[in-house]
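Record type: monomer structure entry
Structure origin: computed from sequence
Chain ID: A
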Amino acid sequence: MSDRYTIDLHCHATLKPYSKSFRVSENGGQHSKDPEKKHSIWFQKRPRLINRASNLILSITKFTQSDFRSSREGGVRLQMVSIDPMEKNLVLSRKGNPSNFLGKLLKNFVMGIGWARINYIAKKIGDDYYADLIKTREYLLSLNDTPIQHEGKELLYEVLSGFPSTQLSEQKLYVIFTIEGGHVFNTNTPQVLDKVKALKQWTHRPVWVSLAHHFSNGLCGHAKSFKGLPTLAYNQKLNPEQGLTPLGLQVIDELLTQEGNQKRVLIDAKHMNLKSRWAYYAIAETKQVPILVSHGALMFLKVPKKPGTPLVDASNEINFYNDELVRIAKSGGLFGFQLDQRRIKQVKQLKVGSKPIKFKMDRTFRKEWKQKTGKKFRRRWYRRAYYIFKQVSYFAELLDSDPNFDGKIWNYQSIGSDFDGIVDPINGFWTHRDYPVFIHYFQLNVQRYIEKGNWKNLRPANRLNARGIVDKFAHKNAEAFLRTNYA
C-alpha cells in the first residue's frame, strides 16, 4: 500500500455532474453508472491544449478537476465534497432578475453547469435551498459503495459517517460531506433552526458548514470574493461593518451544541468578513471548538489596529491575517490552502520572499527527476509550487516566532483546493491528477528551504525533515483533525 497520498479539504465534485442531471430529467438528481456520461461523478474531462489555453487567457476552467476518476488517478484518498446548492444570484442579473439570453450564455460558459440547471435555479428553486441540498446528498448516496467496472478497473467510493479508526484503503475513494454557505438553511423563512437540527441528524452529517458564501444571507457579513470581469455580472453588496446577526448566533449555537449526545457540526470561517470572523473566534475559544478554514490564503500582514482607521480593506479581507493564524493554531484548528492563482498572488504583491530558492540543475538531477516523476523538470512549476509552500512556511514561522505558542508549528496546514468551484487553478497543477507532480515540486521547495532557507532559524523541535513536513501537509494533519472532530 502506498503511503504517499493526499486529502483535499474542499472540492465541488458534484457541482457539474449533478447540474448536468437536469438535462436528463426536469427535476434532476439522476446519477449515471456510466463514467462516460456527464451526469456521473466519475465523468472526466481532461485539460487538453485548447482548455488550458482558455484558462491561461480567460481564467475559465473548461475541464473537470475533482471528478472521482481524477481523484483516484492522482492519489487523493479522501475528498471533502461541498454539496451545497448554488446561490440564485449566481445565475440572476445584477438586479436580481432572471438573466436574458446573453446573460445565461455567459454564465453557462463560465460555470459549465448547463442551461437546464440555470433555469431550474432561477425559476424553480425559490427559497427552498434545503430541498435541493437533500437531492444533491441523495445523488451521491445513490451509488455509495457501488463498484463500477470501467476500462478494466473497478471504480468505488464510500461516503463516511465518521472518520475510520483504520488506515484509509487505496482501493476506494472516501468522501465526507461539507456545506459552503448558510443559505442552505432557507434563511428567508422561519424554519431555519429546524433545518439546522434536521441536518445534524443525518447519518452522513457534514463535518462543517460555512455560514457565508458569495452573497448576503442574513447570518453574517461576507467578504468580497469576485474580482475583475465577474464584478460586472454580480453585485455582492458588501458591508464591512456587518457582523454576526442574532439569527447567525443562533445557528452557530445550534450547530456546535452537543447537548443530549448530539454530534456537533463545525463552522468553516471561510467567506465571512473579518468582523464576523473576529466575533466567531471569540465564540469558538469560549466553547473550546477548533477554528477551521477549509480553503484560504494569507495576507502576510497583521490586522490593522490604528485608532480611527477601518479594521481592514474590504476588498481583500477574504484572505487571512497573521493574528487569525495564531488563533487557529491555538484552538487546535486546521487551514486548507487554496490552489487558486487569484488567491495566492498575494505572495508576489507583497514581495514576502517572492522568489523560490535557486539551485543548479545538472544532467544527473534532470535524469533522476524524470525517473521519479515520469515528467521533465519544469522550473516554472517549481516556482508555482513555491507560492503554496511560501504560505505554509510563513504560517509555521509565524507560530515559531510567537513566544506564547509552544505547539508543533507544522500541524495546522493542509490542502483545500476548491477544485471545480469556478476557480483559476495554478498552471501546471490543473486537476487532482496532477497532485503527485505538485507534491514532488512542493517537496523540492521544502528541501531547498531546509538547505538554504529559514529552517535553521526555527526552534530545534520544529526542524522536521522534508518528508515529515510534506506528509503532514498532504494528509497527516487532515487525518489527525478529522479523527478528533469527526468521530
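Annotation 1: The longest helix spans residues 379-400.
Annotation 2: The two ends are 24 Å apart (CA to CA).
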